[in-house]
Write a structure and sequence with these properties.
With about 90 residues, the protein is mainly alpha-helical. Among the domains are: about 35 residues; about 30 residues, no CATH class. Helices cover about 55% and strands about 0% of the residues. It is extended.
């Protein structure tokens, strides 16, 4: 079983890159006017979960960003996913 140093050796640079990408996304969003976007708010709500000392952070973030509605839409607005629950569908937890 790998120790923490081996895990860091293998994955630190990728995690560092992803964290810088997220910071750059927040910077871009903060530089522009207009109403808050629910996807930006959902990502910001997930950040404190990353700092918690718990073993299920990935699940907690996934749950936060998942649409748990059970109602079927009459028609899809487009083919794809939003990546965060739409506010009118219950919003981010």
């Amino acid at each position: 079983m790998p120790d923490k140093k081996k895990i860091a050796d293998l994955h630190f640079m990728n995690a560092r890159c992803q964290l810088i990408d997220l910071a750059a996304f927040f910077d871009r969003m903060d530089r522009h006017d207009g109403p808050d976007d629910y996807r930006d708010l959902a990502l910001r709500a997930a950040v404190p979960i990353l700092l918690e000392k718990r073993s299920d952070r990935a699940k907690a973030v996934l749950d936060l960003l998942s649409d748990d509605s059970t109602e079927l839409l009459e028609s899809a607005p487009f083919q794809g996913a939003f990546g965060a629950p739409l506010p009118q569908q219950g919003g981010a937890r």
